[in-house]
Amino acid sequence: MAVATGNKHKLQEFTEILAPLGWKVASIRDWLPQVPEPEETEPDFAGNAALKCRFAVGVLRDAGLDSLPDAVCADDSGLAVNVLGGAPGVYSARFAERAGHGSGDADNRQELVRRLKMAGLVAGATTPAAFACAIHFQDLSVGTHHSALAWCEGRVGVVECGNSGFGYDPLFFPLLPLGVSDKTFAQISSGTKHELSHRGKALRILAARL
Q1: Cβ neighbourhood burial of 122 (10 Å; 0-12, 13-18, 19+)
Q2: Phi and psi, residue 39, nearest 5°
Q3: What local confidence, expressed as pLDDT, does residue 100 receive?
Q4: Fewer C-beta neighbours within 10 Å, C or N terminus of the chain?
Q5: Do residues 186 and 196 touch, judged by C-beta distance below 8 A?
Q6: What are the residue ranges in the chain where pLDDT is below 70?
Q7: What is the pTM for the complete model shown?
Q8: pLDDT of amino acid 210
Q9: Per-residue confidence (pLDDT) for residue 160, from 0 to 100
Q10: The pLDDT value given to residue 22
């Protein structure tokens, strides 16, 4: 299966989550090293995941390659913070860029912290938030499509904690069965994160359907 992403962290998570389930995961760039990424124009995660998957399939087929992957998968994911009206949402990867405050993970976190402080959040406090992940899968041999959507509830703060993970992980405390974790996604092991995370849940839903 080829994953349509240029994000090495996402690709690593796809591999770590699906390999134990018997899946062989590769990057679409193993077939097309310079494949572009489409503009994400849909209003929700599911729409953007389907858009990215269809785009990747079209580019692969138009390339005239001798061999293709058996399937293509794409995801769209992000963070929704209640006090910010659901922002950054589908713009999670471009949050700082859209505000004119840089780009990339570190700048996105800084922009989130800036907005949270403007909303009155102080160091040591947290506020409800959730990660979402939508997955879209297309089997290239028979043309079937499958999709999955999952959420991970939790809270975000304004102080970064931990050096693991990526994106907004150092600010996000996941909800556990007995309450909110006292550790962020960037402070727990990858295995524990996969059990709790939006991406882990969505990929297990997809695997079960397939």
Answers
A1: exposed
A2: -70, 130
A3: 96
A4: C
A5: no
A6: none
A7: 0.93
A8: 87
A9: 97
A10: 86
Residues 6 or more apart from 198 whose CB is under 8 A from it? 77, 130, 131, 132, 133, 150, 151, 152
DSSP strand pairing (71-81 vs 2-3): parallel
Active site residues: 76
Distance from chain centroid for Cα 25: 16
Provide the token pair at 159: 């102080």
Q: What is the pLDDT of residues 51-67, one digit of tens each?
A: 999 999 999 999 989 99
Q: Residue 6: what pLDDT?
A: 83
Whole-number pLDDT of residue 178: 86
Place of tokens 């699906």: 18
Q: How far apart are CA 147 and CA 165, in angstroms?
A: 25
Say which amino acid occupies 122.
V
What tokens were used for 52?
């990215």
